[in-house]
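Lab notebook, bench 4. The sequencing result for the construct came back, and we need a structural model before the next group meeting so we can plan mutations. Quick request posted to the team channel:

Model the 3D structure of this chain.
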Amino acid sequence: MIDDPKFSMILDKIDALEKRLKPEFPVWLDIRQASVYLQISRSTIRKLILSNSIPFRRVPNGKAGKLLFNRRVLDLWLLSGDVKPNKRARSTFEAFLD
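Done. Here's the predicted structure in token form:
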């Protein structure tokens, strides 16, 4: 690490800007927070839950329980997801390359 006070000041300012630009999210997110974090609708999250496509935990709470999503696990899920383009998109992309 560089021991320059100016460098340290710049890092502090960058940290402050990041906090203002991206709100802090807790480690465990409910459906509403997860939809904001992933920038997808709540109904899309529910569909992903029903298809067992998104990692989540059910915490005992009432009849159905509360669904929670670990933010770090969601990040890994996003990074590991391989999106396979449909046939039309693939052919359009291949035509673009020719």
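The chain has five helices and three strands.
Will bring this to the meeting.
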